[in-house]
Amino acid sequence: MKLNIALLAGDGIGPEVIDQAVKVSDAVASKFGHEITWKPALTGAAAIDAVGEPYPDATHEICANADAVLFGAIGHPKFDNDPSAPVRPEQGLLKMRKKLGLFANVRPTFTFPSLLDKSPLKRDRIEGTDLVFLRELTGGIYFGEKGRRDGGETAFDNCVYTRAEVQRLAKKGFELAMTRSKKLCCVDKANVLETSRLWRETVQAMEKDYPEVEVSYEFVDAVAMRLVQWPNSYDVLITENLFGDILTDEASVISGSMGLMPSASMGADIALFEPIHGSYPQATGLNIANPMATVLSAAMMFENFGLQAEGKAIREAVNAALSAGHVTEDLAEGGKSYGTSEVGDWLAGNI
Amino acid sequence: MKLNIALLAGDGIGPEVIDQAVKVSDAVASKFGHEITWKPALTGAAAIDAVGEPYPDATHEICANADAVLFGAIGHPKFDNDPSAPVRPEQGLLKMRKKLGLFANVRPTFTFPSLLDKSPLKRDRIEGTDLVFLRELTGGIYFGEKGRRDGGETAFDNCVYTRAEVQRLAKKGFELAMTRSKKLCCVDKANVLETSRLWRETVQAMEKDYPEVEVSYEFVDAVAMRLVQWPNSYDVLITENLFGDILTDEASVISGSMGLMPSASMGADIALFEPIHGSYPQATGLNIANPMATVLSAAMMFENFGLQAEGKAIREAVNAALSAGHVTEDLAEGGKSYGTSEVGDWLAGNI
Ligand SMILES: CC(C)[C@H](C(=O)O)[C@@H](O)C(=O)O
Ligand SMILES: CC(C)[C@H](C(=O)O)[C@@H](O)C(=O)O
Q: Which reaction does this chain catalyze (chains A, B) (predicted)?
């Protein structure tokens, strides 16, 4: 296969972890006979510094014409103190999601047996957890009309959803559930919100097309509780943009493996793959960041091209590195640790 | 003191746990020389069954003229399957909050040393946790304009806040922080939402009036994570209605003592006190429900009247019951357990 991959390294540790994912992907490509052309492009604070905006048109061109996007992380502390600054890295993220039509954010939370003790939860609560959130990513209150009135004294944000938006996200949820344990949970606040009632009625109407899938409906506040109590009771969860923002982050910390969690954002034409962690500015340039989440994001990318064996080769290399202790300091438990690039080399060498 | 207390027992186990809080409050009143007149009124599913609506005007009259409201729980499974049914118990709750002007929901999460092992979190994560959420309760997306357009294909919910609404909630937050460790965290999503930017700028402008309070600002997704990772790093948190709904429920399960957590909802003229647990329909009438959360809600009520010693007497009785094992089956760990009313009798007897 010939693959054109847009490469958005971003800020902070982004470039370092992306380098390792490139190494590992190239090793996979050479082993399985594929050819990857990497197309680097600017994004985030790096793009603001260079050209004054976080998702430049030139970057969009490269992404829109690629077969997939591999993304590092964005964000820089110099933007942290003023969330209303006119130009911010996050705006690039939102613009990118919207312009590329990345409507479904796929966020798995799973555990690595060797890392279970890093979880804040007791072992019996977390063992066996393997769930996936599908978060709607281009609608809802993030993109509705927002502003001020009464001379700035009143602020508003409008949350809007159409039935078609709910359907395309829910369809992915049903399809994913069919490949897993056939359990789907629709997370909403239908006892209060009209958009949630639209979500619920739309999903209810789709149930008949997937008779094998067992669908449950839970309120967002109840899910926020049960994720901590019994995360292993969930399988596939679908939800709207803002609930997904909160719940996927909550879910990410329960596994003990947060630094290893990959994600995908899928559109009709293109998909983007990125680690869930941030740009970790304090670690920039120190060669200490854990590259595994980004490497596992590359595994998701191969799998999304239908290249299952390629994805599996990456996952096995990561498991082997964890077992062999070829890990960065965050996972070393005071034992010997390796640099970001050494871990990348080891993984590439073990493909 | 002469106190008129509206008594809203509600549904499910509500009446049973309320009975115990009444017993204990009466014991406190007689010990400290107060006189409580209880004014029972209908609410929830019980009110729908009786008069066709969940917060009848007659109930509002009683509440509005009382010195405080003591509330059990509402909700009945017969309303669970259809969140868009025209008359539902929750609507009563929202109407009650709005009509009584209960703008600040006070939700403490603390731990009882003897219950720490019931937490899903590891002991070192949860030990020492003692935080309070102030959730704004009468604004935001709960009460903004909502509806459908395009023949039902598009749904919307509008989130609206005024500076004055933020100020009165934040003022309570600063004041509460002053009586505690002087740490205040404002939870928002100011990197995306205009209402959150209004929240943040309003709180920032108030900082100068409370120079001793150390204020931090965190995004709601980050708080959803850190609540699970390091709950004991928080003290007072203030937030808007929907974020508060999700985060207070998340916080409630981390302590291991969820069945014991009380809450208060404060307005300008009146306050309401209730356990955070639900109506627990399966346990209705079985005399097994744990009354301690409701009893501790009564303690908050006394304290809100400035009757600190009275509140303390209740808290000490609860601690004594926990130490002595005079508990309902949920806390008995397979040992001897007592009925709801027996625990209530014991607590009243130990005031
Ligand atoms: C940075 C922010 C705009 C973004 C979001 O809220 O979507 C982030 O929290 C995420 O989840 O990707
Ligand atoms: C029942 C529901 C309307 C309510 C809310 O969302 O406010 C409940 O979840 C709560 O937190 O009191």
A: (2R,3S)-3-isopropylmalate + NAD(+) = 4-methyl-2-oxopentanoate + CO2 + NADH
